[in-house]
Write a structure and sequence with these properties.
The protein has 449 residues and is mainly α. The chain is 52% helix and 6% strand. The model has no long low-confidence stretch (mean pLDDT 94).
């Protein structure tokens, strides 16, 4: 391994780890606050999904590791949680899941500022590690949310517990040996379980480091070498002056509960639908989608048979956007995915990729062309819905919370969401989060709070 590259990563990561709430920019903390609320909403919404129920029934323990497995699966079960294309992953789900599951072990009262600072440190570590590996990591077939998430979640949890730097380095090195997640499992319950695996393994890694287990200081360099397929990597490209990733390029709060790579196409189709409203009895229109290079691989189900598969189906998402005019949680039930009435329109969806080279997926546009009887129209969608360039409002977040709470059938007062947005940074969060965590776990089938 290149010792300079290894030393460079640790030096930069240590600078991030040293940051505490009073010295962190207010803008970053506010973005982290919204990311937490969005992730908690997704966790509530996914609490009753099969992946979360399976995780709850897989063991009879109520300890932090098992809580993290259940909460992680719930947070990603709807595929509605935030994304960041800096590392082609979902940054908040594994980090929030680990912090929520293990917060009992922190000393003293856990404040909102403590949680948000730990979230920023964890997601920053995760995303910068992923940016170092590059898109090749994802292209090799790894689910970066799982592989990178365990390292980020361990960094976050160590930060919350205020581990000494030596133990923090050990925890990350142990976490690196626990990394897993294959893109081949997209469209199944195993995809959200990857988040549970990452959050649970992160708590275990921190616990082992605190208990005196040892690990190699070369582990992160070894992780990068292995998960980049042996490619030679340049030194990490960030320093102490680099803005937090949550600020640039930012996290994208999902407006649709489907694969991120369907979002621009859905938005484009909805805009064209407003220009050319379909009428009852109309024949299917031709929908042509031109996507960025490298973005079609996750969309692996041309004819989905389950709601989970439909989340990773370009023809289904496009047809639903055109026929229904709305793509939401109800769009991805098994019954919705198998509607015979949607099949003729799905068959008129054509998907193509622009030829290489790889384009940054956070900025690469999607072109949507729709041709109906006597008309044709096209639109170029530059930014994903929910990005900093097309942001969600507080009202959008509150509506998402309500939608997720209804879907998950978790008894959560709406005041939790409004209170979260208004809470002062020094507010103790233990009581509120214990109650919410208990309700989510109870819905999944694990009564341990």
């Amino acid at each position: 391994m290149d010792s300079k590259v290894n030393t460079g990563f640790w030096s930069l990561a240590e600078t991030v780890y040293a940051r505490r709430a009073p010295a962190i920019e207010a803008a970053a903390m506010e973005h982290a606050r919204r990311a937490w609320l969005d992730t908690l909403a997704c966790m509530v919404g996914g609490a009753g999904e099969p992946a979360a129920r399976a995780a709850a029934q897989a063991a009879d323990t109520a300890g932090a590791e098992h809580r993290a497995l259940v909460l992680g699966a719930a947070s990603h079960a709807l595929d509605y949680d935030d994304v960041c294309m800096l590392a082609t992953c979902h940054p908040s789900a594994p980090v929030v899941s680990a912090l929520l599951a293990g917060m009992d072990h922190a000393e003293g009262e856990v404040t909102l500022a403590d949680l948000l600072a730990a979230h920023l440190v964890g997601t920053e570590t995760m995303l910068r590690l992923g940016a170092w590996l590059g898109f090749g990591h994802y292209a090799l077939g790894f689910h970066a949310t799982g592989t990178l998430g365990v390292v980020g979640a361990a960094a976050a949890y160590a930060h919350l517990l205020r581990l000494p730097v030596a133990q923090w380095r050990t925890a990350l090195s142990i976490a690196a040996s626990s990394a897993c997640g294959l893109r081949a499992n997209f469209g199944t319950d195993t995809k959200p379980l990857h988040v549970g695996f990452a959050a649970s393994a992160a708590i275990r890694a921190v616990g082992l480091a605190r208990a005196g287990a040892t690990a190699s200081d070369d582990a992160i360099a070894g992780f990068a070498h292995a998960f980049a397929g042996g490619a030679r990597l340049d030194p990490p490209r960030w320093d102490a002056l680099t803005p937090w990733a949550v600020l640039a390029p930012g996290f994208e709060v999902k407006r649709y509960p489907s694969c991120y790579l369907t979002h621009r196409m859905i938005a484009g189709i909805q805009r064209l639908r407003e220009r050319h409203p379909p009428q009852a009895g109309d024949a299917p229109v031709a929908i042509d989608l031109l996507l960025p290079h490298g973005s079609v691989a996750p969309l692996k189900y041309p004819q989905p048979r389950t709601g989970l598969q439909a989340k990773f189906s370009a023809p289904y998402c496009a047809a639903a956007a055109w026929v229904d005019g709305h793509v939401g949680l109800a769009s991805f039930s098994d019954a919705a995915a198998n509607r015979g009435a949607l099949r003729p329109q799905m068959l008129q969806v054509r998907v193509a990729e622009r030829p290489g080279p790889h384009e940054p997926l956070e900025t690469a546009p999607v072109r949507v062309t729709i041709t109906g009887p006597g008309w044709s129209d096209a639109i170029l969608v530059d930014w994903a819905p929910g990005s900093l360039q097309d942001p969600v409002t507080d009202e959008d977040l509150l509506a998402k919370w309500a939608d997720c709470a209804a879907n998950g059938q978790v008894a959560t007062p709406a005041a939790i969401a409004t209170g979260w947005l208004a809470a002062g940074m020094d507010r103790p969060m233990g009581s509120l989060l214990h109650s919410l965590r208990g309700a989510i776990l109870a819905r999944s089938g694990n009564a341990g709070g």
